Amino acid sequence: MTKAPHLMKNSLGYAAEPEANDGDVTLRPAESPFQQVRLEEGPAGRKPRPFLSRRNIIVYGTLIFVSLYYLLPLYVMIVTSLKGMPEIRVGNIFAPPLEITFQPWVKAWSEACTGLNCDGLSRGFFNSVQILVPSVILSIIIASVNGYALANWRFKGSETFFAILIVGAFIPYQVMLYPIVIMLREIGLYGSLTGLVIVHTIFGMPILTLLFRNYFASVPQELFKAARVDGAGFWRIYFQIMVPMSLPIFVVAMILQVTGIWNDFLFGVVYTKPDLYPMTVQLNNIVNSTQGVKEYNVNMAATILTGLVPLTVYFISGKLFVRGIAAGAVKG
Amino acid sequence: METSISIKNLALSFGALDVLKDLNLDIGKGEFLVLLGSSGCGKSTLLNCIAGLLDVSGGQIFIGGRNVTWEEPSKRGIGMVFQSYALYPQMTVAGNLSFGLKNAGVPKAEVEERVNRAARVLQIEPLLSRKPAALSGGQRQRAAIGRALVRDADVFLFDEPLSNLDAKLRADLRVEIKQLHQKLHNTMIYVTHDQIEAMTLADRIAIMRGGRILQLASPNEIYNRPASKYVAEFIGSPTMNFFEGEIVSGDAVRFMTGERSFSLDGYAFGDAGLKTGPAWFGIRPEHMVAGEAAQEMPIRLDGQIELVEPLGSDTLVRILVDGQLLWIRLDGQAEISHGDAITVGFHPERANLFDKASEDRL
Ligand SMILES: Nc1ncnc2c1ncn2[C@@H]1O[C@H](COP(=O)(O)OP(=O)(O)OP(=O)(O)O)[C@@H](O)[C@H]1O
Ligand SMILES: [Mg+2]
């Protein structure tokens, strides 16, 4: 798998830019004596394709168009966030800033006002971190053990348990919103971060359990049997055999949970109170606050800041993410 | 002989599917037993039951005189080798070998000593620090055998350990397993599809079908006196030739098939003695001769060569006799070709008679 993209790059390179190699004669396949002999005998090898072939135009055209579609809004946001208000009022939104200022970013982070306070996004950021870290860790730990037990230790009623869990994934959130408010209130956690962490952990459970179960089920059964003959029990097999083999799926689960929980708005609003609102809610309140003029530059900066965490996670673990998904797909 | 493993009335079902039915089996101490049977007949299931990896639905299993029916796999005194090697990919070979010992709380120095000893026996010492991914198929299977070996188990269970290897390596490892058994004298149960493995390794072979043991006997006995038509067809390649007909007893006992009649003079009937009536007459390809030798045989058939398969050591020939195809095995140097007329002969001593209805040996 790791080799394929590399190979493809090479073959594309030869096809797309035959002249580009002129300086480096030894690297050109056509210059090798072997190739020369073959060429004299008759046609051999791949026909060199001009760069501006119809196929290339279509492929690259589509790619460029799609990239623009996704990158343009981001460009507008970044550019706007670096402008001062006067410039925004006069200028067109695509124009680069005449005078770069980081003031909107500072303001978005620490000074912007919602209807209730003027702490900027920072308060929401730290709330979100306090929600995110325990929720992600807790949900992944529980779901992976769930998935492992369901895949490898077919206990009595495990199929039923799994079926119920999966049905849980299809119940609309709206249905459960209010009952959970009551339940949290009864146990005294309504309006606290702990309550929200519990909610996130529970809501992540069906999909994560399914993910882990399918991954562990694709691990050869004989490995599990061998470990049992070797005297390893439930936890030892989990920690020493299964977990070390399953890094990619843990990364996939982490990305799903980080982005899902970080981007959550609904649960944040419903289950916490204003001084504990997560960053997304804080962002909404800043953008929608009705005092004075709309500060587009601050709003843009605040939005980018809020999106930064999932973005960073993607960049750091994107490769592992793709590998994990692919592994799941191939082994089914 | 002292028994090592004793299985009594074992039954196992997956839901509605009864895979093992009332199975009884006694295996002697130090015996090499091979389980042979077609795919899906329950060989792996039986092995997993003995190992304790499946919960039985009924019956009992004794290992070394101890009832282990509900014992944990690790407490049964067994070592197991799997078809897919099942080496822990994130551990080195040494880690794989020592995993079970560490779990059992064996002291560190002893673990090391036992791992080294097993590695020496299997000649995998230079590989101890490598991960399984960096090993060849044969080396992996050696490491997997090593993992069973370090346990100092009385009983070894092998589930098709060689079927993922190429033919040459399979032959080499087969010999090594046999030597290992001669050295260690522990009880081995070995599942395979491969007749040659079964014949060469086994003290006794158990032929299984549909969750039952059809015949349990030495390789020689199974080959020469198969207990049923199924066993006769299963063992031997090319498969045994069969004639459909009837046993009649007049002044001499004969087998009537179509227009022909074979003398059964010399055939050793089983304990039940002579039984007349519809039957199958079976003769192995290698028990038929052609050319001059055929003239001296009590039973002769004239036919035409339909296909020749030279194997070097032997030549397999398919002949057409009265609309029926027969395989015969001739000398590798036999000079024959497609379309020739041929006379083949055989002796009733070598025949196998099976009852038409029950397909049991007569
Ligand atoms: N976990 C299971 N659930 C349901 N049925 C099973 C299970 N494992 C095996 N079976 C069924 O039990 C029967 C016996 O399987 P088993 O694996 O013992 O066959 P086998 O003789 O080892 O075959 P092979 O030579 O192909 O390995 C098969 O029909 C199989 O489909
Ligand atoms: Mg099997």
What brief labels describe this structure?
heterodimer; A: 332 residues; MetI-like fold; 15 helices; flat; B: 362 residues; alpha+beta; 2 domains; six-stranded mixed β-sheet; five-stranded antiparallel β-sheet; 20 strands; elongated; binds adenosine-5'-triphosphate; binds magnesium ion
Portion of residues within helices of chain B: 10-25%
Largest sheet entry of chain A:
none
Would you tell me the structural class of the helices and strands of chain A? Answer: mainly alpha
What's the total count of β strands of chain B?
20
The tally of structural domains of chain B comes to 2
Low-confidence stretches of chain A: 1-39, 328-332
Largest beta sheet: strand ordering of chain B: 6-7-8-3-9-10
Q: How many β-strand runs of chain A?
A: 0
Helix percentage range of chain A = over 70%
Any idea what the CATH superfamily of the domain at 122-331 in chain A is called?
A: MetI-like
List the helices and strands and how they pair.
The complex is a heterodimer of chains A (332) and B (362).
Chain A: H1 4-16, H2 33-41, H3 54-81, H4 85-90, H5 103-110, H6 122-152, H7 158-170, H8 173-186, H9 193-218, H10 221-229, H11 234-245, H12 247-263, H13 266-271, H14 279-288, H15 296-331
Helix pairs in contact in A: 3-15, 5-15, 6-9, 6-12, 6-14, 7-9, 9-12, 12-15, 14-15
Chain B: E1 3-14, E2 17-28, E3 32-37, H1 43-51, E4 58-63, E5 66-67, E6 78-81, H2 93-103, H3 108-122, H4 137-149, E7 155-159, H5 167-184, E8 187-192, H6 195-201, E9 204-209, E10 212-217, H7 219-224, H8 229-234, E11 241-249, E12 253-257, E13 260-263, E14 277-283, E15 289-290, H9 292-295, E16 299-310, E17 314-321, E18 324-331, E19 341-346, E20 352-355
Parallel strand pairs in B: 3-8, 3-9, 6-7, 7-8
Antiparallel strand pairs in B: 1-2, 1-4, 4-5, 9-10, 11-12, 11-14, 12-13, 14-20, 15-19, 16-17, 16-19, 17-18
Adenosine-5'-triphosphate is lined by residues 14, 17, 19, 37, 39-45, 193 of chain B.
